[in-house]
Amino acid sequence: MSLASISILAGQGRDGGVEVVRRIDLVPGDTLAVVGPTGSGKSVLLSDIEQLAEGDTPSGRRILLNGRAPERSPLGLVATLSQRTNFVIDTNVATFVATHAACLDKPGEDWPNIVLGLANRLCGEPIRHDDPLQGLSGGQTRALMIADIALISDAPVILLDELENAGIDKHAAIAALADRGKIILTATHDPVLVLMSRRRVVMRGGAMVHLHERDAAETLWQERLRGLDEIFRNARETLRGGERLTLGGIL
Ligand SMILES: Nc1ncnc2c1ncn2[C@@H]1O[C@H](COP(=O)(O)OP(=O)(O)OP(=O)(O)O)[C@@H](O)[C@H]1O
Ligand SMILES: [Mg+2]
Ligand 1 in contact with 58 (CB < 6 A)? Predict the structure, then answer.
C-alpha cells in the first residue's frame, strides 16, 4: 500500500485517565521523538504502532493509516529496532542480507557488500561476510539491522527504541535512515536525538501528556549539544581505542 499518513488516536494512561494529547498525525519524512522517564510508556506507544492497535491494547489507542482504520495489517509496513534485538536464524551475515534482498525482490546489487559497508561505519569492530549472525555483539547486531532497514527494507515506518544504548554511532544511524521519506519514531533519553526531531511527544504514567515542537531556542541548543556530544564521542573513541587523551585536545 502507499502510505500518505499514520495517525495515533488517544487512549488512556496507566491509571485509566484519558490522554491529554488527543491525536498525532505523521506524514512521510516526519520524525517524532518519544520522551519521558523510565517506565513512562514509550515502548508501549511504539508497540501500539507496530501492532496497529485498534483499542485492543492496554493503552486503548487506535492507529489509522491514511485516515482510516486498516482493514487488515499491510505486510512490511513497520520496521522495528527494539530494546531487545536478536537474530534467531542460523546463517552467516552475507547469506542473511542476500536472502532478505531476494525476499523483497531486489536483485542485481551486491547487497552484502553495500549493507556491510554502512553497518561497519556505524559500529566498532568490523562485521565480516562469513560471521555467524548469532555470534555478532549487541552493537554489531543493531548496526547490521539499521543498515538493512535503511538500504533494503521498503517499510515506510521505522520505530527505534533507545538507539543510544546500542553502542553504535547513533547520529550516523539516524542520518542513514532520514531523508528517505520514511516516518521515523524514536523513543530516546538522549537530548541530541530528541532535538533531531521537529516534534516530540512527552509520556508520563503511560499517557501522552504533551506534544512539543522544537522552537528557535531549542534549535540553538541542538547545535550546542551536538558539539558537546562530538567532544564526548571523540574522547570515548580515543579511550576505547587504547589511546591516551592529551592536553592538546582540551586547551
Ligand atoms: N497506557 C498504558 N496503559 C497500561 N499500561 C501501560 C501503559 N503504558 C505503559 N504501560 C505499562 O507500563 C510499563 C512501562 O512501560 P514502557 O515499557 O513502555 O516504559 P518505557 O518508557 O519504554 O521505559 P524505559 O525507558 O525503561 O524503556 C509496562 O509494563 C507497560 O505495560
Ligand atoms: Mg522502553
Answer: yes
